[in-house]
Structures are given as C-alpha cells and as structure tokens.
UniProtKB/TrEMBL annotation:
InterPro entries: Glyco_trans_34, Nucleotide-diphossugar_trans. One of its GO terms (biological process) is protein N-linked glycosylation. The keyword Membrane does not apply. GO terms for molecular function: glycosyltransferase activity. Keywords: Glycosyltransferase, Transferase. The keyword S-adenosyl-L-methionine does not apply. GO terms for cellular component: Golgi membrane. Gene3D superfamilies: Spore Coat Polysaccharide Biosynthesis Protein SpsA, Chain A. This is Nucleotide-diphospho-sugar transferase domain-containing protein. Belongs to the glycosyltransferase 34 family.
C-alpha cells in the first residue's frame, strides 16, 4: 500500500505544486479521507517528500533571461556603504548589469522594516519590492537579482554572475555557506531568480515574526522557510566546507545552491591587516585548522565581523589592484554614529 500511495501522492503534489511535509500531510488526508495519520501513513508522506526532493533537484531548468540587476542598500550614517557601492557599481557597469542602491537615513530604514529591528531585514524589503513586478523585470530581460551587502565588494571584477548561475543549474536561490558554523548560510550575497517561487519564499521570510529581532535575523528566517519547504539543507551534516570532513564544492538542493564561502562570499582575503575583534592583533582568517591557510575569497569579499571595516576594506582593495583614491577611505568613520531618534516600536 505504501509504495502505491507514495507514487500517487508524489503525482498529486507535482500537479498541485505542493511541497513540504505539512502540505503533503494535508494532501494525503484529503486524498485518502483520513483524519489522523498512523505510522504507515506518515512513512508514506515522508517517502513522498524525499522522492519529490530528489526529483526537484534533478529537474532541468530553462536558463533565465541573461540580465542581472545588482542591489545594495545602506544608511547615510554607515560610513563604508558608499565606498562599497562605488566598487560594486564599477562591476555592474563592466558587465552591463543594472544597478540599484538605496541610501537613506537610519530612521527611515528602520521605519521601512518596522517592527523588525535589524537593518539586515531591509534586503528582504528591497527584494520583495522588485519581485512584486515580475512582468516588468521579465520585459527588461532581468533573470536574477544580485544582492550585495553594504560591507561587501566584488574583488574579481572579471567574473560574470552567469558563471555561478550556470554552475548552480539556474536554481532559484544561490548563496554561500555562513562563515560562522553556528549558522548554515549567509545572506550577505544572494543571487535570486526572478520567478514566482522567489516571490513566495521572500514573502514568507518577511512574515517570519519569531526572527524580527532574534539572531541570526533574516538568515534564520530564510533557513526556517527553506526547512518548511523541505529543501533539505539540514540533512547535510557536516554542512560547512571548512570543518573537519565537511563537503567541498556546491551543495545542490531542489531550488537552492549553496557554495563554499570562499567561492562567493567570504571575509578571508589578501590584504587583511585587522583582526576580527582586536585591531592591535594581526589577523587570522582561518576558520579551522583543516583549512588551507592560503585559500582566500575568490569572488566577493565581505567585511563581516571586522572591527575596523574601513581600514580592512582599504587594504583588501589595494591588494587586488582596485583604485581606492576616490573613495575617501582614510576619512571614513570607523564607528557607526548613533540614530537620532528611537526605533519605532510595535
């Protein structure tokens, strides 16, 4: 019984575009007129979830339109935002990508994301704003939105986003593992396919109230949403490439591709001079004793966790031959100024 019902449930899920254990439980109850699932029923649903995950991961995807829109945002009191945006705009212009940058006062950003209390949520707001009009993006030939955090810069200016998109099989979400083993993925750099799946996912992330003001904020919310959709990230253990016996290369899931941090979004880079927490100490960017001490960020350097981001950014850009003369890095404030008014309350 289990095998035939599993096949039927898989077929029904494909027809209705249902994914995730809870959704399949609802389908199962409606299809077989049961109120409570017994052990055999639960085994059937679990088998269907796994079968769908394998099938979705192996499915061929038509390439998205070739256009890319690079997005970033920062508050006017975030001193390195303009410098990073300038470098990233150079990259976008070089490859013919559209470039969007929201620069606004801190209070306005917090009002835009209220009752959320962490600026990282603004990327979700910006993604949702653009994804709200899929037809417009499609008409302009934009296949992917390329989010880059305000403290991250493209150091390999020759590498097109299309190389990573193709390697990831044109999946709907491409991002890197987190640099901290306490979290699976890092949302500092995202490639988001322009499609209805992305619309729904980021709407769900935005609505995830439990992480409005709880570490790791939008990263944790995204992981929760992907878990609900049975993408299978939590099934890969160990997950991070830099831990002992960790997997190398891309980790591919039904709609998500996760790169090693060095391949997309890392705080390890040539030119670093500032320790992650103590500016008086030389920097040690190794994440574990098993990691190659000479391996460095290959595509985008992210100042995540650096206590002196302006000084670090200047050293990194200089080490990669990028012109910093017009960026005013030596004059940048190293500590963010305080907001002028209270954060909006719920």
């Amino acid at each position: 019984m289990a095998a035939s019902r599993t096949d039927e449930l898989v077929a029904l899920a494909i027809t209705t575009n249902a994914r995730g254990y809870r959704h399949l439980v609802s389908l199962y109850k409606a299809q077989y007129h049961v109120d409570e699932l017994q052990a055999e029923d639960k085994a059937c649903v679990t088998a269907a979830v796994r079968a769908l995950r394998v099938q979705d991961a192996a499915a061929d995807r038509a390439p998205a339109p070739a256009g890319v829109a690079v997005l970033t945002a920062y508050t006017t009191d975030y001193s390195i935002g303009a410098a990073c945006a300038a470098i990233n705009k150079q990259y976008a212009d070089r490859h013919g990508y559209e470039f969007y940058c929201d620069e606004l006062p801190y209070d306005e950003m917090m009002s835009a994301i209220a009752p959320r209390r962490f600026c990282g949520w603004y990327k979700v707001a910006m993604l949702r704003r653009l994804l709200a009009n899929l037809d417009d993006l499609d008409a302009r030939g934009i296949g992917y939105l390329f989010w880059i955090d305000a403290d991250a810069v493209v150091i390999d200016q020759d590498k097109p986003a299309s190389a990573l998109i193709a390697a990831a099989g044109h999946r709907e979400l491409i991002l890197a593992e987190d640099m901290n083993p306490c979290c699976l993925v890092n949302t500092g750099v995202l490639l988001v396919r322009v499609c209805e799946w992305s619309q729904r996912v980021w709407d769900d992330v935005w609505a995830m109230r439990r992480y409005f003001d709880v570490f790791f904020y939008e990263q944790s919310a995204l992981l929760r949403v992907l878990k609900q959709r049975d993408e299978g990230l939590l099934d890969v253990q160990p997950f991070h490439s830099f831990v002992k016996r960790g997997p190398s290369g891309l980790k591919l899931f039904p709609h998500v591709a996760v790169t090693p941090h060095l391949a997309l979004n890392s705080n390890r880079c040539r030119g670093l001079t500032v320790h992650v927490s103590d500016p008086a100490r030389r920097i040690d960017t190794n994440h574990s004793a098993d990691e190659d001490p000479h391996a460095m960020a290959e595509y985008i350097f992210h100042c995540a966790g650096r206590c002196d981001k302006a000084r670090t950014l200047e050293a990194v850009l200089a080490a990669h031959g990028l012109d910093t003369s017009s960026l005013g890095l030596s004059q940048l404030k190293l500590v963010r100024s305080k907001a002028t008014s209270a954060v909006p309350k719920e």
